[in-house]
Every structure is written in C-alpha cells, then in structure tokens.
Amino acid sequence: MAKVTFNTELCKGCGLCVNVCPKKILELAKDKINQKGHYPAQMTDQSQCIGCAFCATMCPDCVITVEK
Amino acid sequence: MIVFEKPKALADVPFHYCPGCTHGIIHRLVAEAIDELGIEGQTIGVAPVGCSVFAYNYFNCDMVEAAHGRAPAVATGLKRSDPENHIVFTYQGDGDLASIGMAETVHAATRNENITIIFVNNAIYGMTGGQMAPTSLPGQVTQTSPYGRDPKHCGYPVKVCEMLSQLEGPEYLERVAVNNIKNIRAAKKAIKKAFENQIQGKGFSLVEVLSSCPTNWGMTPQKALEWIDEAMIPYYPLGVYKDRSAE
Amino acid sequence: MAEKVLMKGNEAIAEAAILAGCRHYFGYPITPQTEIAAYMAKRMPKIGGCFLQAESEVAAINMVYGLASTGKRVMTSSSSPGISLKAEGLSYMAGSDLPALVVNVQRGGPGLGGIQPSQSDYFQATRGGGHGDYHMIVLAPASVQEMASLTFKGFDLAEKYRVTSMILADGTMGQMMEPVELEMGEVNEHDKSWAVTGTKMARKHNIINSLSLNSEQLEQQNFERFERYKKIEENEVMYEEFMMDDAEICVVAFGIASRVSKNAIMEARAKGIKVGMIRPITLWPFPKKALETAAEKCKAFISVELSMGQMIEDVELAIRCKRPVTLCNRVGGMIPSSEQVLATIEQVQGGLE
C-alpha cells in the first residue's frame, strides 16, 4: 500500500499538490497552521493513494515523501 | 520502499521562496540529477544575484556566490581550475543571465565552455519586487512597465535559446517548463542531460526553465502555472534548440 | 649569483608569476600592458597552464574570482580604464576574502585618457577601487627587477592574508628593459581549507560568498578583515631610503617618479643641498612611520608624482602636516624631468634659508 508523509513544517500551503492529485485525496488543513503560519497540506484518505508521487513531483518545497 | 524523497544533494534547509514559486522544483531537479549521476563530491555550483541568491545554502556541494550576471565567467574560472575533476553549474535568473550578464552568457556559449547552466525564466525580477525583465512579455504589467511592456518603447523579450542556437559554440540548448507533471519530467531529463554532457566533455549545455512567480505576477500558485501554458509557452516554445551530438 | 637576463618590465611580471606557481591568466587586451597577455598566451600552454582571453575586463576579473575560489594562484592584468571595469570584481574578491594578483600598468586619465605613463590611479588602488570597506596590498616597482620580485611576493602576501595584491606600475616600467635575476626562491604554502574543490563527500560544503544580510554578522566580518589589514600594516610595509641620513628635505616618490628623483637628488647633493628620498614600495600599507620619523629631522617634503597630487595626501597625513609638502608633478602621460625635480628641490631649499 502506498504511503505519503508530509514534512508539515516545510509546507507553505501553496496547494499545488492538492490540484495535481489524481485521486483528489489531498487538502489544505483548515483547522491547523504550522510554525510558519501556513495551512499545511494533508491526506484525507490514505487508503485510496496509488503512490503516483504527482504531489511530491509538483511540491516546490520537498515536503512530501512517498513510499510504496 | 521509498519512491520519492528529498534528494541527498539538497541541504536540510527550508527554501526561502514564496509559496508556490517553482524555484524549489528546479532546485530539486538539479539535486536529483547530481544524486543520480553520483557527482556531488566534485560539483561546484554558482549562485546568481536574484531570488535564487541563497542557492548556496540549499545545495550540499561546494558553492560560490557570483556578482550579478557574472556566473558564467566565475564558472569558467572554476572549471578551468581542474577541467578533469570539477563539475560546474550555474543557476541563474532572467535578469542575471539575459540582461546584466548577457555578454558573459554569450561568450561562455561561444567558447563552448564545458559547464552546465540552469536558466530560470520567470519573465520578471522577483527579488527586487517585480520589475520588467529582459524576458517580460509584450503587454506584461510589471512595477516598471505599469501600462504593460511596450516593445516600441523598451523593446522585445529576449529569446535566449533561439539566440544562442545561432552560435556555433554551444553543445546543447533546451527550453523546458515546470508547470505540470509531464513538463517537470521533461525538465528533469533535460537537466540531467546537461550534466551528462559536461561529464562527457561535450561542452556548454544550457537548460532554460520556464518558471512561475505567483507573488509578482499577482496570481495564485495554480493560476501562475496556467499562465505559463497560456502566455509564456506560446512566446517561448518548449523544445531542443541545439543538440550537436544528436545532429 | 644567478644569471641575469634582459627583460621588458611587463614580461618580467609574467615570468615571475609563472615562477610563483601561477598557472592561470585571464585578461582583456589594453595598452600599455598587452605584453603580459602575449607572454602568457605563449608560455601557459607549454607548462600545462591556462591563458584565456576574456570577452571583457569584467569577465576576466570574474574568471579570476572563480579560479581563486579553488585556491590556486591566478592573475589578471590591465591598464587604468580596464581596472575601473574590474573594480566590481575587486570588491567582491575582498568581500569573499579571495587571494589573487592584479596588475595595473597605469596610463593617463580620466576616461579613455591616453596611453602614456601615469600614476593617477593611486587613489583608486590604495583606497580599494570598488565599493565597500576594503584594501588591497599595493606594490609599486621601480625597476624591472622589482616588477619580477614584487610579483612573486605579491602572490605570497595575497595568500598569506587572503587579499588581492596589486602591482601598480606605469607604462614606462612596463616597457623598460633591464637585466633581471629570476631566482625567486621557494613558493610558500598557505592554508587552503576554505577553497571550493568539491567536497569529495568528506567534508561540509565550502561557500565562497560576500553576501551577508545579517548586519551584525557583516560588521563582524568587516572587523575580522580589518584585523588582518592591521597585521599587514604592522608587518608588510616596504620602502627604500635614499641619502636620508642627514637629509633636511625629503622627496617622496614611487615607481618611475622615484627614478627621476634619484638623479635630481644626486645633482642637488652635488650643489650641497641636503636632500634624500623615501620611496614607498608598498603604497598600501603606506610607510607612515618612516615618514613620521623623517619629519622629526627634515624641514620640508616634496611629493613627486605623475598625478595631480594624490600620494601627497598620504604624505601630509603621515607627517600630520607638521612640515610643508610641495607637489612636483606632470600628468596626462608626461613625466617630470630631473631638471623639474631639481628646480623644486632648489625652490624648497630657498624657502628654508
């Protein structure tokens, strides 16, 4: 099963990963902010992840690690 | 098994770039190429003046910070110091490479200097707050072209790859973009090839990367990526402009 | 004693650089120093070195910047208008603490000026030339022998203190032919742990950089640099005293002006005038103490220069304006004659009586 982890403190909440996810299972957090003051990206349903790494490829801040 | 992580050649330092700025993607692609080719220990990078001025903090290889526009000349010195062992790349923006450093760029190219140049074209001066760049598009509104760039008044954008392709010197010129997955993959391939060329002693390899500047374009990160497709690529077509070994 | 060879001043610089272990030269043609480039173009390929003609002085100094970053010996040479173009690079090299040797075979200015000898880049050289607080070690040869030996020494001092050394010569010194002894001795090794040569994955990356947005840190870097400058001022001042034992008038002159002055001083001595000379060999650091000491005995000073009076300010500062200083000069490519210097000496002597 694919696993996506976020180095949340590096995230600037730009949302590019959210838009590029083919399964639409990423979102920007609405109820938490990181130390830099951004709403970080997070996974809504890990079970649907196919490990395509589009999110990590699109992320400008090396926030995302993908395992398969 | 890890299928994607931050490349080893990037330092454990957060980028200072604005949210959604694609400099970070390009940094990562350069670092991935360095990792895959196993050349970090012999690589020396040259940072420019501009938004990527702090690039020297982000790569784990040896780094030099150059004066504005002078990176190709500095890289020439670094390369000529030990041509067999030094792998030298510059990372330059459009103001740095195509305006103040045009002479250094053209002459490094015509000498076929065996270096790799990563040229980030985002059609604006980012660090100083969004002024007109040599690559700003006709009609583009910037801080110093508030009524839109008027070619009758301040000329046309510089098409670097097209221009350099007229020279006999350079080995490899390609324009890529980092605004979607497909383009990012092509950009990665081009950047890696630009390093491979140097390792093989083929000579001057420049990859122009169309990049976004959401902050100074006044767009959301997503809209900025779309603007690359809608406005930049039609003016700056992607593709290989010169590949001497393939000819 | 080693054999002497007859050489042109410019060629003596080039050969001495090679003897000092310099294997990289970057430059752009400009009169009257092009012999240095021509010599390097011929010699470097034969000894595994690299001569590269840059597209501009700006590019040349930045190639020097890149090469110096790798810890190897490197040089460039130019003449006045070209040095102005290199000023940006000189400032960056100072800010990044890079050692290199830069030669300025001066010509008359300002602007395009002429191509005849001058010393009117004294301010530019001794005050740094570019922006920011910094100094270069400025060496002023007065013979072809010194063109060689000061070049050799200039490389050593540059590495020892991580600064740029400048040979400040002029068109006459560059074109002059004299016998030279090229036995220069051993090349000293200096610490290069700061250099960028690839990490070999065995150390943290080195960064060559002059940017520092943290004001406190930038201030500290300036303080540290000026500590080194202080050591240079304490240890590296060079000058020659000529007939100073009983001198009542002290001529101060460097380079070609000092050669003319020597003749004038000997003629004045023949007329019974007690005159001597202090010839600064390092223009920065300036031989302040020697002049201060001279001011205790000498009643008047004469600054002989190929400029509108630049070094004279350093002479006045060094002696704290305790004695009158008279300027004897020609400019625009003209050289003061020994008759002119003698006349000035006699005039100053007249004022003392």
Give structural notes.
The complex is a heterotrimer of chains A (68), B (247) and C (353). Chain A has 68 residues and is of the alpha+beta class. Chain A has one domain (3-67): Alpha-Beta Plaits. Helices cover 15% and strands 21% of the residues of chain A. Chain A contains two helices and four strands. In chain A, strands 1-4 form a two-stranded antiparallel ribbon. In chain A, strands 2-3 form a two-stranded antiparallel sheet. The mean pLDDT of chain A is 96. Chain B is α/β, with parallel strands linked by helices and 247 residues long. The longest helix of chain B is centred in the last third of the chain and has 19 residues, at 181-199. The N and C termini of chain B lie far apart (40 Å). The mean pLDDT of chain B is 97. Chain C is of the alpha/beta class and 353 residues long. Helix content of chain C is 42%, strand content 20%. Chain C has twelve helices and 15 strands. Chain C has helices spanning 9-19, 34-43, 57-69, 80-95, 122-126, 144-161, 171-175, 215-235, 255-270, 288-297, 311-318, 338-352, and strands at 4-8, 24-27, 50-53, 74-78, 100-106, 137-139, 164-170, 177-181, 207-208, 239-242, 249-252, 275-280, 282-284, 300-305, 325-329. Chain C has a seven-stranded mixed β-sheet, sandwiched between helices. In chain C, strands 10-12-11-14-15 form a five-stranded mixed β-sheet, with helices on both faces. In chain C, helix 11 (311-318) links the parallel strand 14 (300-305) and strand 15. In chain C, helix 1 (9-19) crosses helix 2 (34-43), helix 9 crosses helix 12 and helix 10 crosses helix 11 (311-318). The interface between A and B is medium-sized, with 25 and 28 residues.
